[in-house]
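Subject: Sanity check before I submit

Could someone independently write out the structure tokens for this chain? I want to compare against mine line by line before I put it in a report. The sequence has 216 residues.
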Amino acid sequence: MKKTILIVEDDDSIAEFLRQTLEREGFTVLHAPDGREAVRLFPGADAILLDQRLPRMSGLEVLREVRRTSQVPVLIVSVKGHESDKVAGLELGADDYITKPFSARELVARLRANLRKGEAAENRTRLGDVEIDWARADVFRSGMRIVLTSREFGLLQALHEARERVLAREWLLERIWGYDFEGDDRVVDTTIKRLRAKVGADLIETVRGLGYRLAR
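---
Independent answer below. Compare away.
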């Protein structure tokens, strides 16, 4: 699927150069010539190229507004190259800072790198002091890697996918162990007990008579 990039730039010639460069690389492009238009358009973007000097709202004001609701990758593209300008942008949550003039190859390479980081972040979930990398099937607690069996990880994934819904023991048994499992359904309880010992007892709730769910 094509990624959509929002260019926030009031200089028409620079905006057109960026548009042509990104479209040649297979991106879909949106353009905002001022800060307020950027705030209106950013929810539809996968990444933002943001100038600092803008009419109606500064680039830093736009960045502050974006970070209130979104972690979309933001690359500041600016003629301002002073260390204090870069620090201000990065402290507000910018992912990268590119100083004009720049090469098209450098811009695209850094944009793709930040998009990859964003995709990796989407594959991770934090639940209290537990962090889960779903793509790698890795689980960390307080920064330390926890080794889960495939069925323990499957239970954790099923509970997470269900959000706050309660999952019955019978449903979990069929989902994780399979329809043809002939053992005792108490194997679910035993595995949940082991999982709690590894990720924290307060992470998984027992709903008496119904089943299990992740703690709210």
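---
OP: Matches mine. For the report I'm noting this point. Residues 4-122 form a domain with the Rossmann fold fold (CATH 3.40.50.2300).
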